[in-house]
Design a protein that fits this description.
19% of the residues are buried. The chain has 2 helices and no strands. By secondary structure, the chain is mostly helical.
């Protein structure tokens, strides 16, 4: 599998890991969840960011 395959796996792995940590975090520490703002932030900002970073890191490590 080339660097592109690893980047795709990193994309999905990073997104899933970021989403799981983001959804579990309010159970560990107190985070205000007014009107779903926290969940929308996780779903629409942190999860895509984690997916992109996962793809970049996995692609870089596989190419190098």
């Amino acid at each position: 599998m080339g660097w592109f395959g690893w980047a795709v796996l990193g994309f999905f792995g990073g997104g899933i890991l970021t989403f799981a940590v983001g959804m579990a975090l309010p159970m560990v520490i107190r985070i205000r969840q007014a009107e779903g703002a926290y969940a929308m932030g996780v779903a629409f900002f942190w999860t895509p960011l984690g997916a992109i970073l996962g793809a970049v890191i996995a692609g870089y490590l596989a190419a190098g």
